[in-house]
# Entry
Amino acid sequence: RFLASLEAFRDGRLSILDLSAAAGSVASTLDNSSAPLPALFEDADSQLELAHFTSDQADHANEAERIVAPLLAAIDAALGP
# Structure
């Protein structure tokens, strides 16, 4: 679900605040057995929301990519080869 939201953000169909909400939603559905993913989603949620309020809209795409990079790396690692 988060990856679909990220794609929609990249396509301009969602705002960075919408992407933040998607990360928060996923974080709340994961349990601690899938560590470190819940913490990474929570961190992305708060950082994306902060970026919404503290950066220019023109910078939102770059900020979002920077913020979600560690999360995407962890998802890739969790999925394995």
